[in-house]
Write a structure and sequence with these properties.
- There is one protein chain.
- By secondary structure, this protein is an alpha/beta fold.
- It has one domain (about 5-150): 60s Ribosomal Protein L30, Chain: A (2-Layer Sandwich).
- It has four helices and five strands; from the N terminus they run βαβαααβββ.
- Strands 1, 2, 3, 4 and 5 form a five-stranded mixed sheet that branches.
């Protein structure tokens, strides 16, 4: 079976965790929801037949201002990992299932994540330290996210 390998480049970088950690939960939710929209466009939801596998997620950020290593840079990617792992946080009734199938944008029915990771435990995901590279101009800032199947053999 072929290895899954997906790469996405997004023209923005993560915020420092100091801007949302230990603050009202709605601040983090707003950041996570924005990453959900961005990652939904580039990766889309994980198809059912590809779920339930251990995956490696590699993140490289090109930034004008580098974050402290390793804590700040790794913690800044928490919204990305959250969006990649959780699929649907609540059960959708049979009456409302057709809305998901037709793609009607109902905020209460949107998945909370994309399902590429089962969860963030070591059993299901490998997350190497996030790499950051300094760039001179804001227009050059970007983040590259790679998802690949992880085979321990």
């Amino acid at each position: 079976m072929a290895q899954l390998f997906k790469v996405a480049t997004i023209s923005k970088v993560t915020k420092s965790p100091h801007s949302w950690m230990k603050k009202h939960w709605a601040i983090y939710k707003k950041i996570r929801d924005q990453w959900h929209k961005d990652l939904l466009v580039v990766f889309g939801p994980c198809p059912e037949e590809l779920r339930g596998k251990k995956r490696k997620v590699t993140i490289t950020q090109y930034r004008t201002q580098l974050l402290d290593e390793p804590d700040n840079i790794n913690n800044s990617c928490k919204p990305i990992y959250d969006v990649l792992q959780e699929y649907i946080s609540r059960k959708v009734s049979k009456k409302d299932q057709w809305l998901l199938d037709t793609g009607v944008p109902r905020k209460d029915l949107l998945p909370q994540g994309l399902g590429w990771l089962v969860d963030d435990s070591l059993k299901w995901s490998v997350k190497p330290p996030v790499t950051q590279i300094k760039v001179r101009h804001r227009k050059d800032q970007k983040i590259i996210i790679t998802i690949e199947d992880y085979d321990e053999s």
